[in-house]
Description:
Blueprint: H1 3-9, H2 18-31, H3 33-50, H4 52-55, H5 87-123, H6 125-140, H7 143-154, H8 158-168, H9 171-184, H10 188-195, H11 200-236, H12 248-251, H13 258-263, H14 269-293
Amino acid sequence: MSTASGARDIPALKAVPRSTRRTTAWERFRRHRLAVAGLGVLLAFGILAAAAPSVLPHGPNAIDLDHVKEPPSLSHILGTDVAGRDVFARIVIAGRVSMSVGLVAALIASVIGTIIGLVSGYAGSWVDDVLQRFTELVMTFPTFFAVIILVALLGPSVFNIMLVIGFMGWTGKARLVRGQVLSLREMDYVTAGRAVGASTGRLLLVHILPGVMPFVAVAATLTVAGAIITEASLSFLGLGVQIPTATWGNMMMGAQSLTVLRSQPWLWIPPGLAIGSTVLGVNFVGDGLRDALDPRVRIG
Length: 300
């Protein structure tokens, strides 16, 4: 059999369009029922928080001394707190703060970790050694206690909490990205780009970065969940966002009282459920993204 006829017998390989890959990944994500449920919870909180001024019958900081510590009723569906403020309104507004802290802190941590991981993994040699020793040094600090100290020094504001959690949460992503870069930089398409004279910046941004972004996206979801819990813990201890600004953490401060725990559950159960459902939702979405974007699974 001639070479020409042999070549005709081999079916042509067709490239899978990028839109088809995206569609397939979305189909995978939709098959993950917990991930879809988690996404629904997050969207519900987001829509409520965005539409709060038009859907809330009471303002989150409106004080009504005639209705203090009232249980849930038709006028206050989740009751009122020690100042007569509507608990439902405060939970919805608190979602803005807590979720914003989680998203911004995760973005900061992901950017820092990705940059350090890219440079460390691609450069190698002494650059890699210096960056990895610095990463390990940061990792040796107990994260939560370091956050407490830094917030106490800088002041307990929303902006400072975002920065501190973000700047303390990049180490795991840096090591994850570095490990992927060490593998990707030896791939044929990267070697070909280097051979034709592509600059280091182009190799990193165009050829290597897209390969690590799925891993960064999944890791970022875990950071969002961790940042929400950290912010809630700081606010519960009085070191986070200060009253009257509502966060789920400072709404839980009332749970320190035995009387509240026993006879006024509407003051601490709703914010506790909000924290738990949001964190679980973020984690489920992360699991769904991991399954949808797993590069070991053939798409198309």
